Amino acid sequence: MWWRAAGICTKVLCPSRPDRVTGPSETPHLPPSPRRPSPVSATDPTLLAEREHLLRARADLRAMREHTLSLNAQGGDHVSTEYLKAALYRRAKALEDDPSLPLFFGRIDRVEPGHGREETHESFHIGRRHVMDGNGDPMVVDWRADVSRAFYRATRNDPHGVVLRRRYGFAEGELTSYEDEHLLDTREADITSRILTEEIERPRVGPMRDIVATIQPEQDEVVRTSLERTVCVQGAPGTGKTAVGLHRAAYLLHTYRDRLARTGVLVIGPNQAFLHYIAQVLPTLGEVDVRQVTVAELVDGTGVPPRVTDTPQVAALKGDERMAEVIRRAVWSHVGEPAETLYVTRGTRRWRVPVHEVVEAIAVLRGRGDGYTTARSLLGQRLAHRILLRMEAAGEITDDRVQNAVARSRPVKAYVDELWPALDPVKLVLRLLSEPELLAVAAAGILDADEQARLLWSKPARGPKSAPWSPADAVLVDEAAAALERVPGVGHVVLDEAQDLSPMELRAVARRAGTGSLTVLGDIAQGTTPWATPSWPDALRHLGREDAHLEVLRKGYRVPAAVVDFAARLLPFIAPGIEPPEAVRSNPGRLDVVAADGDLLAAVADAAADVATRIGSIGVIAADDMADQAAAALTAAGVEHGRLADDARVTVVPATLAKGLEYDHVIVIEPARIVAAEPSGLRRLYVVLTRAASSLTVVHDDALPEPLTSREPLVHQGG
Ligand SMILES: Nc1ncnc2c1ncn2[C@@H]1O[C@H](COP(=O)(O)OP(=O)(O)OP(=O)(O)O)[C@@H](O)[C@H]1O
Question: Can you list the domains of the chain with their CATH numbers?
């Protein structure tokens, strides 16, 4: 028998409960609840009427699409015609019906008081997109419309005018059930929404899904925050931060369509595996034009493809906020002190700009707050203007053309080049990391001698192509480029796993946001980089958004109670004061801790073979340097599996890439090795353990990390 419990965790949780995950029509894990609505018969008149509404809405959507396709794209010229064609194509695409999903998932009926006249009754079906009939009346209202807000927010205490909220169950695109809440009926007890519970507990297969039918009130508040405001969301694992961030992006794109069509929305995630996982959410919500990038991709336009990885100590120093000032100084140290009068000859006359006037012009330009290159480009004009004033005083006739000619004249250009040389950000950072003298000037009073020595490459680089660039260097180059010229920003940035970014990375993100707003998502307890942010006010300061609104999400939709209890043992050691999620799932989940008895990989293979019999996705997570061995063990045991982005049912995941992902069943191999692999190993372990949505199996041969053994054996109530 391989199910041998570890020394301290002698209990296999919920052994009597088969680990099945509910399908749409059954909920074996739900506690018996007399208030749960009973299934609806297929001849139920309400259900039939709703099916009829769905049929008509589908026909109306078809008509809307056909109308769009029939439109003739005719612009004033070729470019505008092509533009119009593309817009119509996108519109037609957005109007495609997905037969596997009904066009609406909910409905609200409202009564508006008549104030003396008859009160009005209104009914709205809420769906992923707006559908109207031939008269322009709404058949389905977009979930982002103002009128839909009440669907998400109405409670018995604050019904928002809603008398009835209806949720629909469906299978293969057809409505199969509904649940009604009569919010004004005081006799009706609160129900445990079976549809909501099933949605939350549905098995995870494939990439992340949207949660539009079941957004919870505290999540909706974040989603519908206005575009002007930056929101920062702290939330334990599985509280829906990523989901909320993506839905906010969709909400903003709908509500501020014109503004954001011009400026755009950018989603930033930790790595490609994560971006792959979330890639479908926005397109499902009808938003196909959102750029989704990793932090590394954000700065890859700098032209310094990373070749090496810095030691954590060096990377932390390069990511330190003080580097921004070092770079700023390095840039501006290139503006010289004018020592000579500028002479320009035109025709038979020679004109001069004395040193003190040049000094003055430079001071004015430096004081404008422009980038180095932008300010430099103005210096020639400023000097030419001084000459123009002298020419006019001498009775010459001048105009803009003369000033431009003077600004572009060889003596002026040479003078400017000498005094205020053109800079290239890559070469500048290369010199900064190669030349102790330049670094000493730029870092004087900011970095001590040891820190300066730590920054310098062991051998000065000969050129950008051969330099040993690291990811942190790319961020420095990005900072230097921004010190030269401002980068245009987008209208809104959604930044996920923000706790892991260094101050310098946060600055790079802030530059992309320009004057726009951000949705900053993260969990301090999941910070695994050496430079992880210690607090949100810190991170927000680096983002230049101190006034952001901080929201805390507490309810956990992923991790079941048994797994939360286990993983939360780490919290006092990794993030004192941070609360674990309050598990919303009614199924307490399953936790198995297996001691391997000398043959770790055999135990892993056994565990995988066992877990593979369950419904849902499976993640086998190991320290990075064990992932290949784990995959080989699965192959040997005949367990089919893939690597990240393969979309296989069983996926082998290196621990450092697990962040943000989730699987119904997670097998964690040798926690002690995950902890030992990096300075923030305990936090990494916390991330890894909390990927499980249904069951967690921990297989170990070494002793479990002490914090996990720090309490009495686990006995889960209600399991
Ligand atoms: N209101 C909801 N209804 C249904 N499912 C939800 C809801 N909110 C979140 N979920 C689901 O819970 C899971 C966790 O959500 P998400 O990945 O957004 O959490 P997170 O806070 O970003 O987690 P982590 O910090 O671990 O990355 C996802 O499968 C998501 O779809």
Answer: 45-191 (no CATH), 225-310+429-558 (3.40.50.300), 335-419 (no CATH), 575-708 (3.40.50.300)
